[in-house]
Amino acid sequence: MKPARTLKHIEAPYSWSQVANGEWAVELLQSRLDEWSPKLFGYHMLKLGGLSCELASPHCNIQHQICIDKHNPLHNVIADSFDLPFIEKSFDACLVSHQLDYCSDPHRLLREVDRVTVDDGYLLLTGHNPVSILGVKGLLPWNRKKYPWLGRMFMPYRVKDWLSVLNYEVVHHENFAVLPATKHLACSAWAENMLSDSCSMIGSMYFIVARKRTFPLKPIKPTWKLRRQLSPLRVNCRTKANQNLPD
Question: Which residues belong to any copy of the Methyltransferase type domain (predicted)?
Fold first, then answer.
């Protein structure tokens, strides 16, 4: 297994139009996000990266949403993903769409997102699955310099292991897009419905929803008390004979 951190700089795409079959990927991701948006509550939501900015969330109960990217015109804040300009525990939900695939240090990115996420906050992660038809197409020489094969693909179970280290509970995990997009969208939709259950392990993309769990470090004192051990009473040694002695 290759290490997650790399010294090679990977330029992340800032729009789905740069990714092969980007419109098809957005449509599938948007349907999953629309399903989970009404379940999110809070005051502030973070969308990290240009690909996350282009995913709409009109049904979300969190009205204040901040989009961070350098080139996407939908952004409202320009910042480094490894050094977000926010205090700790600022956001109730964070959407990180396909950012781990183009990140030189995914562990550091997840730690920074964890820093700005409130306790019991939600983290929504999406990415490409290397064990899929889309991942195998990256072995072709003419695809290696194109998105999404220009980045790296991590197994979804490996991403879930990283989240468990940060005390995140995975409440939902789904692999989808078994067959790549074709010109015949009706046939693709029919094949996807037929293969989604039996071949979900080789889905081209994954959608993970995790919740941050924080455990108190202060121990709880017991309500019961130990019985005191029996101790002998002190005996007064004064006698009447001693009382009658002259001064």
Answer: 74-124
Is residue 9 assigned to a domain?
no
Q: Name residue, tokens 């906050």.
A: 121
| Domains contained in the chain, number | 1
Pull the structure tokens for residue 117.
């996420």
pLDDT digits 0-9 by tens, 74-87: 999 999 999 999 99
Cβ atoms 214, 167 nearer than 8 A: yes
201-238: burial string, b at 16+ Cβ within 10 Å, e else: ebbbbbbbbbbbeeeeeeeeeeeeeeeeeeeeeeeeee
Is 6 inside any structural domain? Answer: no
Domain that holds residue 183: 16-212
Q: Look at 95 and 221; give whichever has higher pLDDT.
A: 95
pLDDT digits (tens, 9 = 90+) for 127-146: 999 999 889 998 898 888 89
Element (H, E) at 94: strand 91-97
**CATH number of the domain enclosing 77:** 3.40.50.150
Q: Band of the pLDDT at 179, cuts 50, 70, 90?
A: confident
Query: CA 81, CA 41: separation in Å to the nearest integer?
Result: 24
What pLDDT is attached to residue 69? 95
> How far is CA 175 from each of CA 150, 179, 201, 203, rounded to the nearest angstrom?
21, 12, 6, 5
CA distance 247 to 245: 7
pLDDT of 236 reads: 55
Quick check: helix, strand or coil at residue 158? Answer: helix
Note whether residue 232 is domain-resident: no
